[in-house]
Every structure is written in structure tokens, then in C-alpha cells.
Write a structure and sequence with these properties.
single chain; alpha+beta; three-stranded mixed β-sheet
């Protein structure tokens, strides 16, 4: 299952995404949360903390600046640019996924 949460700024997308991700993970579903927002705060809402959220955002900025390279596979994205959050949620702060794998 893939779920995207979109909408107007300040509408509660980040909060709703965090609640949904943790709820599904608590039910035993595998959850990968991708924060694609220009102001990435999903890590804070998920409970991974300020330091880890900032680290992930910094990694994303380095890629945007050309100082890092894009990960070639889904697993590489999570290994290089992801972290484990509470309840088994895996979080990554990303700019874009080039050549996404189907499924």
C-alpha cells in the first residue's frame, strides 16, 4: 500500500502523516515514511528527535548542492539517507527518487 499526504501549507499534513505511519507500524505493517517537504519536520512528529531530523535534512541539502550522490536503489536510499523511528517506522528525508522501481 502506498499513501501520499498532500495539501495546503499548515493543514496538518506532517502531523497526520506521523499518526498514520505510527498507527500502521503498530499494527505490524512495514512503514517507510518519506519526508519530501521543503521544511522537513516529519522526523520531529514521528519522534526521532531534533538531532536526527536535522542530520537527515542536512544529507538532503548536500545532495541538492551536488556534494552527495543520489542513491541508485530503494534499499540504498534507506541505508544512506534513512533512520529508524519509533514503532518500527523507517524515515528518509529526500529530494526526489530517480528511476523508481515499480511496486
Amino acid at each position: 500500500m502506498k499513501i501520499a499526504v498532500v495539501g495546503k501549507g499548515g493543514a496538518g499534513k506532517t502531523t497526520a502523516s506521523a499518526v498514520l505511519a505510527r498507527t500502521l507500524a503498530r499494527r505490524g505493517e512495514p512503514v517507510v515514511a518519506l519526508d519530501c517537504d521543503t521544511n522537513p519536520n516529519l522526523g520531529l512528529s514521528l519522534g526521532v528527535g531534533d538531532t536526527e531530523t536535522e542530520r537527515l535534512a542536512t544529507l538532503r541539502e548536500q545532495i541538492g548542492d551536488g556534494a552527495g550522490e543520489h542513491a541508485p536503489t530503494w534499499e540504498d536510499i534507506l541505508d544512506r539517507y534513512g533512520t529508524d523511528g519509533p514503532d518500527g517506522v523507517r524515515l528518509s528525508v529526500i529530494t526526489r527518487i530517480e528511476n523508481p522501481e515499480p511496486g
